[in-house]
């Protein structure tokens, strides 16, 4: 339908796009590669714009849940000691458990 399903933005693992002359892999037209990189640069500028960022300084013992499919997130430089632990949860399982512990008004918003 022309819409997007998901955006994954990680410049650290971006590989160059390949031009495919036989149409089997990569993009078949050079202008599509140029258009991709123009769009990628525009999106990158938005992602790195300080006006678009929300910064949260966590305190010891704080837990933060981030939906990787809904929020672009990163960490900034840090000096000193810190201990971080991460895990991945199935969205369906998490939401099923959350529904057991929230009231009806909040459930309708999810």
Main β sheet profile = none
From the alpha carbons, calculate the radius of gyration and give it in angstroms.
Answer: 20 Å
The portion of residues assigned to helices is 25-40%
The coarse overall form would be: extended
How many beta strands in the DSSP annotation?
0
Q: What is the overall pLDDT average? A: 80
Give the strand content: under 5%
Spans of 5+ residues with little confidence (pLDDT < 50)? none
Return the string of H and E elements. HHH
Which structural category do the helix and sheet elements fall into?
mainly alpha
Total helical elements: 3
Ends apart, CA distance between termini? 25 Å
Keywords: Carnitine biosynthesis, Oxidoreductase
GO biological process, one term: carnitine biosynthetic process
Pfam family, one: TauD
GO cellular component, one term: mitochondrion
Question: How would you characterize this protein structure?
Answer:
The protein has helices at residues 30-47, 91-101, 104-109. The chain has 110 residues and is mostly helical. The two termini are 25 Å apart. The model has no long low-confidence stretch (mean pLDDT 80). It holds the Pfam family TauD. Pathway: Amine and polyamine biosynthesis; carnitine biosynthesis. One of its GO terms (cellular component) is mitochondrion. Keywords: Carnitine biosynthesis, Oxidoreductase. Residues 34-88 form the TauD/TfdA-like domain.
Summary, kept brief:
The protein has helices spanning 30-47, 91-101, 104-109.
């Amino acid at each position: 339908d022309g819409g997007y399903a998901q955006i994954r933005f990680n410049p650290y693992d971006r590989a160059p796009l390949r031009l495919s002359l036989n149409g089997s892999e990569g993009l078949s037209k050079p202008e599509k590669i140029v258009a991709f990189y123009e769009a990628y640069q525009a999106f990158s500028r938005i992602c790195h714009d300080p006006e678009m960022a929300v910064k949260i300084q966590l305190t010891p013992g704080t837990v933060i849940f981030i939906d990787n499919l809904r929020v672009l997130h990163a960490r900034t430089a840090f000096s000193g000691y810190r201990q971080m632990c991460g895990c991945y949860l199935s969205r369906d399982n998490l939401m099923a458990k959350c529904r057991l512990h929230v009231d009806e008004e909040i459930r309708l918003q999810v």
